[in-house]
Every structure is written in C-alpha cells, then in structure tokens.
C-alpha cells in the first residue's frame, strides 16, 4: 500500500484481502456481507461481523503506525452497510491501469504513437500476478480473471500499434514469450507470424502457425479462426501485410 512516497506491506492475508476488496471499488462501499464472504467463505467464525470489525480496526492501526499520520486511518471509512477506501481511482493501480487501457483502445489506429505510450504506461503498473497476496475470495478471484484478460488485451493493442509503426523486428522477442505463455491465444500467434514475415523470416512464421494449429486441435479440438487462417494464407502467397495488421 502507498501514500505519497510512503510504501509499506499490509501484514496478514485477511487485512490484505480487505484492502484489495475495497481498492477494487475505490470510494464505493463494499457491504459487510460481501467482505465477510471474501474473508471466510463458508467457514464463518462464530461472530463474523465482530471479527470483521476487529480486522478493520487492526487495519486502521497498521495504516497509522506505518505512515505516522493519524488522519490516514480514515482511508478506511465506515458506510451505512460496509466500508469504503477513501481514495480517487487515479491513486489505485488497478483503476488507473483500466483507465489507460480504455483511453488507448478508444484511439483505435488513429494515433499509434500515443496508443503505445498509454499502453506502455498501463502495463508498467504490473509488478507480478494481480492480487497475488489477497487471498482466494470471490471478489479477488473475479478481479484476477478480469484484470488478467484486460492485460492480455492491452498487449494485443500494443503490438497492433507497434506493427502500425513498422516496429515488427523490435517486438518479436516479446511476442514469442507471450505466445509461449499463452499458446492457445490466436491473436498473439497472428501478430507473431506477421512480425516474423515482415522481418523476412517466413519459414519461422509458417512453423509458428503450424504449431499453434496442432495445439488448438489437440487441446480444444478446434481449427484456427478465420483471421489467423487468412494471415497464414497471405504469407503462403507472399502477400504484403497492410500497415497496422
């Protein structure tokens, strides 16, 4: 957790789970029932609401002791039916990440330079898997899935913008790494074989396509989608790849 230039780790999984649940909806209350479910699921303590209040009180003390500012205890505010994190969305990495990706996506292909800057800034906010130490509650699990998908989509938009700028050689290594990590994600394969083909590496591009086709067939019982097949056929015919594709 950060405040200005103060950075500190929240001790204890339960306290981190509370911070994560509140940070995913900054300035919007999260109900006590939802927080109780997030912390304990079906294994409820004898008096779950009192236990939750005790954890929130401890969290406030941690914030005060780690920052040295009594007023920062009010970052965790009590609402009529729950608690809220009193921070603007721009101060929460997850919210800022989504905002930057939305802004870049809205540009489409109209301004690839600005799109690259926004997406690079957004992806730089990631320091590892989303919500790594926030427990396994429903709020965190759903947010993990959503944020991970947005991150992968952001990479896809970033590579589109880089291809539009003619930087196909520069992105090959990163594309290869992501394609190896997500071998069934067809868009990464399409972008990779495009970058390889534009770089004069047609044999490698065809090999990457065939490996992806085999994986899709083996794991999902599917053939590549229309966009990936069309790119493959274009490479076979040695067609020029339009800018931004």
TrEMBL record:
Domain OmpR/PhoB-type: 1-87
Pfam families with a match to the protein in the record: BTAD, Trans_reg_C
Ranges of the DNA-binding region feature: 1-87
Key words of the record: DNA-binding, Transcription, Transcription regulation, Two-component regulatory system
Alphabetized InterPro entries for the sequence: AfsR-DnrI-RedD_regulator, BTAD, OmpR/PhoB-type_DNA-bd, Sig_transdc_resp-reg_C-effctor, TPR-like_helical_dom_sf, WH-like_DNA-bd_sf
Homology family: Belongs to the AfsR/DnrI/RedD regulatory family.
Protein name, as recorded: AfsR/SARP family transcriptional regulator
């Amino acid at each position: 957790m950060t405040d200005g230039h103060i950075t500190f780790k929240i001790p204890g999984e339960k306290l981190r789970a509370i911070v994560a649940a509140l940070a995913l909806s900054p300035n919007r209350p999260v109900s006590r029932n939802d927080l109780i479910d997030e912390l304990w699921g079906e294994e409820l303590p004898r008096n779950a609401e009192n236990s939750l209040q005790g954890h929130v009180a401890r969290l406030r003390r941690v914030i005060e002791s780690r920052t040295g500012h009594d007023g920062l205890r009010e970052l965790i505010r009590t609402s009529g039916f729950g608690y809220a994190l009193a921070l603007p969305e721009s101060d929460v990495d997850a919210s800022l990440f989504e905002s930057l990706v939305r802004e870049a996506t809205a540009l489409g292909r109209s301004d690839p330079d600005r799109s690259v800057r926004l997406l690079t800034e957004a992806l730089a906010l990631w320091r590892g898997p989303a919500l790594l130490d926030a427990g396994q509650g429903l709020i965190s699990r759903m947010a993990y899935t959503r944020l991970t998908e947005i991150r992968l989509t952001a990479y896809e938009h970033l590579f589109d913008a880089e291809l539009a700028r003619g930087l196909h050689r520069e992105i090959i290594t990163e594309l290869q790494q992501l394609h190896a990590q997500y071998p069934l994600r067809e868009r990464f394969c399409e972008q990779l074989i495009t970058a390889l083909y534009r770089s004069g590496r047609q044999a490698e591009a065809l090999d990457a396509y065939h490996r992806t086709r085999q994986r899709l067939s083996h794991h999902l019982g599917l053939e590549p989608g229309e966009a990936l097949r069309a790119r493959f056929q274009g490479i076979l015919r040695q067609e020029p790849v339009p800018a931004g594709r």
